[in-house]
Amino acid sequence: MAVRQLSEDLVNRIAAGEVVERPASVIKELVENALDAGASRIEIVSDGGGRRLVRVSDDGEGMTRQDLPLAVQRHATSKLPDGDLLAIRSLGFRGEALPSIGAVARLAITTRHAAEAHAWRIAVEGGVQSDLKPAALAQGTRVEVRDLFYATPARLKFLKSDRAEAEALREVVRRLGMSRPDVAFTLAGEERAAVTWAAAMPGPIGRLARLADILGGAFQTNAIEIGIARDGVTVEGHAALPTLSRGNALGQYLFVNGRPVRDKLLLGAVRGAYADHLPRDRHPIVALFIALDPREVDVNVHPAKTEVRFRDPGLVRGLIVRALQEGLTRESRRAASTGGSATIAAFRPQGALGLRSWDWRRSPARPEALSFGATAAAVGVSDVAQTAFEVGPAAATARIAAQEPEPDLLDRPLGAARAQVHETYIVAQTRDGIVVVDQHAAHERLVYERMKGALAQRGIARQILLIPEIVELDEADVERLAARAEELKTYGLVVEPFGPGAVAVRETPALLGELDAGALVRDLAEHMAEWDDGLPLERRLMHVAATIACHGSVRAGRRLKPEEMNALLREMEATPNSGQCNHGRPTYVELKLSDIERLFGRR
């Protein structure tokens, strides 16, 4: 077959296929152009999910009469002044967006430069360019795209519903809005009511305000400020506490030199930083902004510029992991305050339902000996309180410490233990409130951190079982355990095959004392069945340590003495990351006295 030169129209349509995938792609290119033009206010309007109409208006620099016809030509751009592709300092630079859009849609551009007496307008329909015409517009640019893909009808059938396309369009605007909190955004369309994000002040405070506008108030309440710099690379932003997580990775927003990206290296670094705090099926919510010399990153490795390539990927990944881990360690106790606020809020709907005057005598927990007509004076308030804390013959509901707490313990962050409720929760008193601790979750984190510390220093000591424990399993589980025997041995658990359907547990971690080795081995076998063979060794060892820590911690239902409860509180205060367990749940909730007083109408 002979080689022939493609027509200009066909070349433009091929280029459009790379740049314009869906209406969201159009919005991305046009908003990036507005940001590069120095806009301080951008308005986006869509109709039919962007299929029928996309309009982007800005108050940026605008274009002159001479520049406007060039803007709709291929490979024409104002963003490479010296032609250096290794120093990209703008969001867009290839000079293909506008001509590609004009090749498949009805494109109209109205713009006015400060040096011009009035605005100018040009239109491109199906690749055919019109003449310049005078127009009316304040300084800036307005771009309208109508009937997307009318010139290539085959592409229309690959678009999703209007609602799905509109959501993809909004997601693009959300990401660009996060990257530039100093710019005001307005997003309007027939699918939803218009939303406006006002320009925020510079710095972390303004950035967090914009993130709260987009991600919601829950993120602002649970956000940790992140900041680290080394060797010309800066990582800043905010990350949510592990107690605020999602079931997918869509809540991870990453930016490189202001450009929104979805890079596997960066996403893997975020996942690795949270590996100690979240289970595999939960994902963190973060917004991280990476800044470095443009010559140290290649942003042109993907047609949509959503992936990047770093000259030193190890440095960037290491900074992200370190920044997140330092922030999580520093703010590990903040989950208690956010959990306390949620606890207080949980009581408020009752007032809205008319349950303002609650009669404690109608409570299911009311002592049987107390009738509805009895008064507190007749029975004795102290007797009623004591009845509530008595231990029944079957199971205790609450136990209160006999001695008064030492005054110095009340000033400690977690206070002094006063009671154990349902043999699961420790109630401690502080100087200005109370703390409720989940004893199993708290001790699970303590054991996990202890194991990590022992492994880093001298290795985990093992204790030999006098009689090896035989655990029956499926043959597949036995093979998995045998294949991971060396990894398990690292954490003090020595197992070996014992016939076709069983393993023998010969040694266990000494720091755990007595434990149900059979339940531990079965749990490990179940987790290993879900492991990816490509999972790094470090991550696999973390899973092993977390599982062992869970089985070696104080179980719910175990009665603790007052000195044991206080010892647990003191160790939590001295242990990093003690605010959450290995599964991302809070280990304790703190309620301020002022919040409790509001519950009872005292404030």
What does this structure look like?
This protein is of the alpha+beta class. Helix content is 37%, strand content 22%. The chain is built from 20 helices and 26 strands. The strands form six sheets. Strands 1, 2, 3, 4, 5, 6, 7, 8 and 9 form a nine-stranded mixed sheet that branches. Strands 10-11-16-13-14 form a five-stranded mixed sheet, sandwiched between helices. Residues 349-396 have low confidence and may be disordered.
Q: What is the radius of gyration computed over CA atoms, rounded to a whole number of angstroms?
A: 31 Å
Portion of residues in beta strands equals 15-25%
Distance between the termini: 87 Å
Structural class, by secondary structure, is alpha+beta
Say how many strands there are.
26
Q: Which residue ranges are poorly predicted, with pLDDT under 50 across at least 5 consecutive positions?
A: 349-396
Helix content: 25-40%
**Main beta sheet strand tally, sense and closure:** 9 strands, mixed
Oligomer: single chain
Mean pLDDT rating: 81
Count of helical segments? 20
State the shape: elongated
Protein topology:
Layout: H1 8-19, H2 23-36, E1 41-47, E2 53-58, H3 67-71, H4 97-104, E3 106-112, E4 119-125, E5 128-129, E6 133-135, E7 140-146, H5 162-179, E8 184-189, E9 195-197, H6 204-215, H7 217-222, E10 223-230, E11 233-240, E12 245-246, E13 252-256, E14 259-261, H8 264-273, E15 283-284, E16 286-291, E17 297-298, E18 309-310, H9 313-330, H10 334-352, H11 376-379, H12 381-389, E19 398-400, H13 407-410, E20 416-421, E21 425-430, E22 433-438, H14 439-457, E23 462-472, H15 475-483, H16 485-490, E24 494-497, E25 502-509, H17 517-529, H18 537-551, H19 562-574, E26 588-592, H20 593-599
Parallel strand pairs: 1-8, 13-16
Antiparallel strand pairs: 1-2, 2-7, 3-4, 3-7, 4-5, 4-6, 8-9, 10-11, 11-16, 12-15, 13-14, 17-18, 19-20, 20-21, 21-22, 22-26, 23-25, 24-25
Helix pairs in contact: 1-4, 2-5, 8-9, 14-18, 14-19, 15-17, 17-18
